[in-house]
Amino acid sequence: MVGRGGLSRLRDCAYCFSRHSGAWLDKLTYAGRRENIAGLPSDRVELVVGDICDAGLLDELVPGCDAVVHCAAETHNDSSIADPGPFLRTNVEGTFRLLEVVRKHGVRYHHVSTDEVYGDLALGDPARFTEGSPCRPSSPYSSAKAPSGMLVRAWARTYGLRATISNCSNNYGPYQHAEKFIPRQIANVVDGARPKLHGDGRNVRDWIHAGDHSSAMREILTRGRHGEKYLIGADGERSNIDVLRAILVAMGKGADDFDWVPDRPGHDRRYAIDASKLRRELGWRPAHTDFSEGLQSTIDWYLTHEPWWRLTKAAAEARYAGQGR
Q1: Topology of domain 2-176+207-236+270-288, CATH
Q2: Which pLDDT score is estimated for 5?
Q3: Could you report the per-residue pLDDT of 271-282, keeping only the tens digit for each?
Q4: Which of 26, 29, 45, 197 has the fewest CB atoms within 10 Å of its CB?
């Protein structure tokens, strides 16, 4: 499974696998979709609907697995501001439950985290996040992800858990939920609605294609040093306004055909990843190095998969409307 690049479809789930088969554990909340694993071989991937906080269920699934990849998380910043509770439960308690069961059964563990745990950098600052950057989370989401990574480090040092951690920058590509920045803008243009941009639009994100994130995770899982953290990035720094304008122009609209909306509270200004450790130690390189090309292929995917995102678009916009954004 790992050898065929199957990790590229992991979204908000825990994946427990042996050499020949794997269990995809997903709570199927609003962001979970059975369709996300359509086409994967049924004799290799079993969908298990459940909660990573369910210790009994984990104790049934993990024995016999070669490794557990922990992608399960509540991830949407705006939702974390509106209701932090689910983020603490899933991101902190859920991680603790997974760590305990892999410790009990001696299973290899990889923990997927975010660059947001490091807070933000100033615009125009040449500095980038490294594995040694201090945690300074700004949002309820990132403040729930930061301690989950600390738990992993503690379990690796105290109990000798065979564990690695990765912190990745902003992903884009197919199968991303309609609440996220790039698919939301694409879907709005399709619907004839004016896209919306928070604040002054100058906030910078370090974009990476989901396929590159997956290939990096595979390298870390199979060859990374136990107890180590690796930052994953593809040198993709771009401001939100530049990304939005690129989408508009690519879809035949005017570059300023959007509306401004109030900024998100505590909105981080800039993220930037130094992935030199990953490249130096494991020889990993991103395959999607042309952002314009990757963005166009992403737009094309959403244009040809409208039924997939249409199911979630209305609910996502209703949540944004309730938040004034």
Answers
A1: Rossmann fold (3.40.50)
A2: 29
A3: 999 999 999 999
A4: 29
115 is catalytic: yes
Of 201, 75, 210, nearest to 145 by C-alpha is: 75
Of 26, 74, 78, 116, the active-site residue reads 116
| Active-site entry in 12, 115, 219, 268 | 115
Contact 114, 126 (CB under 8 A): no
Choosing from 141, 172, 175, 302, which is the catalytic residue?
141
Both tokens assigned to 250:
């690519």
Say which residues have a Cβ less than 8 Å from residue 250's Cβ, sequence separation at least 6.
295, 296, 299
Angle at 164 between CA 163 and CA 166, to 5 degrees: 150
pLDDT tens for each residue of 66-97:
999 999 877 776 777 778 888 889 899 999 99
Mean pLDDT for the stretch of residues 175-180: 92
Question: What are the boundaries of each domain within the chain?
Answer: 2-176+207-236+270-288
Note if 141 is an active site residue: yes
Q: Cα separation of 153 and 227, whole Å?
A: 7
CA distance 68 to 188: 37
CA dihedral 73, 75, 80, 84 (to 10 degrees): 10
Average pLDDT over the chain, rounded to whole? 90
Is 281 designated active site? no
* C-alpha span between 64 and 100 (Å, rounded): 15
Tokens (6 digits) for 57: 């269920």
Residue type, 44: R
In whole angstroms, give the CA distance from residue 199 to residue 227.
Answer: 39
